């Protein structure tokens, strides 16, 4: 306890010693007045002085510790509590890549309904000898090949087409629609068919 006072509140120590000394002096003065100043009263006075000094010193130590406890608690809590961190700024999200606009799907060409009436066709030319359809004005090599694919090989086939059959062929000539009517294939085919027909045999005389 004395060590705590020496290293702690010295003012409190001096007050305790002064108070004890004062009590001892008063006791000695009282004994002198009473005429009983001898060895035993002096020992008692010193014992009383020591007891008073001890009690006062003990009170000083308790008061000093009580006063220092809140400061220590405050300092400890202050030292251990971490400082609050500032909130982190939200990270900017990367912009999403712009997706290219989907290409428009090609619009299928409308399928043309069959117009007119399909004429009679052949799987192959007669006698494996097709007529030269390029003699008809407006028919070239590609158009002649297309006519063969459709089953037309001879002038007499084209010459026999009706109006409904002409309309069908006009609508089915891929890339050459309307050529039959525009170039009048039927009339040309009739003339060519007549020219290529064999001459009649004269009757025997």
Total helices: the number is 8
Kindly name the structural category. mainly alpha
SSE series: HHHHHHHH
Shape: rod-shaped
* Distance linking N and C termini: 175 Å
Mean pLDDT across all amino acids:
74
Strand tally, please?
Answer: 0
Q: What fraction strand?
A: under 5%
The largest sheet is: none
Instruction: Tell me the helix content.
Output: 55-70%
Low-confidence stretches: none
Radius of gyration: 69 Å
Features:
205 residues; 8 helices
Q: How are the secondary structure elements laid out?
A:
Elements: H1 2-7, H2 10-34, H3 39-80, H4 141-150, H5 155-159, H6 163-172, H7 179-182, H8 185-196
Structural summary, described in words:
It contains eight helices and no strands. The protein is mostly helical and 205 residues long. The radius of gyration is 69 Å and the shape is rod-shaped. The mean pLDDT is 74.
Quick structural summary:
By secondary structure, the chain is an all-alpha fold. It has helices at residues 2-7, 10-34, 39-80, 141-150, 155-159, 163-172, 179-182, 185-196.
């Amino acid at each position: 306890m004395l060590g705590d006072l020496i290293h702690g509140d010295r003012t409190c120590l001096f007050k305790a010693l002064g108070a004890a000394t004062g009590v001892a002096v008063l006791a000695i003065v009282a004994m002198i007045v009473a005429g009983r100043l001898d060895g035993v009263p002096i020992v008692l006075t010193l014992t009383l002085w020591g007891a008073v000094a001890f009690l006062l010193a003990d009170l000083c130590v308790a008061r000093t510790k009580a006063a220092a406890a809140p400061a220590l608690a405050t300092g400890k809590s202050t030292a251990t509590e971490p400082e609050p961190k500032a909130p982190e700024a939200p990270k900017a999200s990367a912009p999403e890549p712009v997706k290219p606009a989907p290409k428009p799907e090609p619009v299928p060409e409308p399928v043309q309904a069959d117009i007119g009436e399909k004429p009679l066709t052949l799987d192959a030319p007669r006698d494996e000898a097709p007529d030269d359809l390029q003699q008809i004005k407006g028919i070239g090599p590609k158009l002649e090949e297309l006519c063969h694919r459709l089953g037309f090989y001879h002038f007499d086939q084209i010459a026999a087409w009706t109006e409904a059959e002409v309309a069908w062929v006009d609508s089915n000539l891929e890339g050459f629609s309307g050529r039959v009517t525009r170039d009048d294939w039927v009339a040309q085919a009739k003339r060519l068919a007549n020219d290529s027909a064999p001459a009649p045999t004269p009757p025997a005389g």
